[in-house]
Amino acid sequence: MNKVKLSEFQKKSSQMIDEVVEQARTIVLTKDGVPVGQITPYVDRRDTLFGYLRGSVVVKGDIIGPVLAVGVNR
Fold it and tell me: CA-to-CA distance for 66 and 72, rounded, in angstroms?
């Protein structure tokens, strides 16, 4: 993560954005030494987590029937 003064970023913004994309690094923008923002590479993510693990679970056996406790006398 690189820290860059906001005034320097304003002068070299295009070059720095290319650097973020090529190196997949984050740039933290500072003003008077205080962080005010950051430039990060874009990551394409799903809109929702619903269905994210679809197809990763395998069901073996009866998942609806009663479960018998082991070691219990009935």
Answer: 14
The residue type found at 39 is I
1-57: which CATH number, 3.30.420, 3.90.1570, 3.40.1620, 2.60.40?
A: 3.40.1620
Cα torsion angle, 47, 53, 39, 34, sign: positive
> pTM for the whole thing?
0.57
- The whole-angstrom separation of Cα 21 and Cα 40 is 8
Beta strands in 1-74 (DSSP E): 2-5, 27-31, 34-39
Query: In this model, does residue 70 exceed pLDDT 70?
Result: no
pLDDT tens figures, 16-64: 999 999 998 999 999 999 999 999 998 877 667 777 777 788 888 777 8
